[in-house]
Amino acid sequence: MNKLKLPMRDGVGVIILNKKNKVFVGKRKDNPIDKWQMPQGGIDDGEDYVSAMKRELLEETSIKSIEILKEIDGFFEYQLPNNLVGIIWKGKFRGQKQKWFITRFIGDEKEINLKTQHPEFIEWKWILPDKLPEVIVNFKKEMYIKLLKNIKEFID
Question: Which domains does the chain have, with CATH numbers?
Answer without folding.
Answer: 3-155 (3.90.79.10)
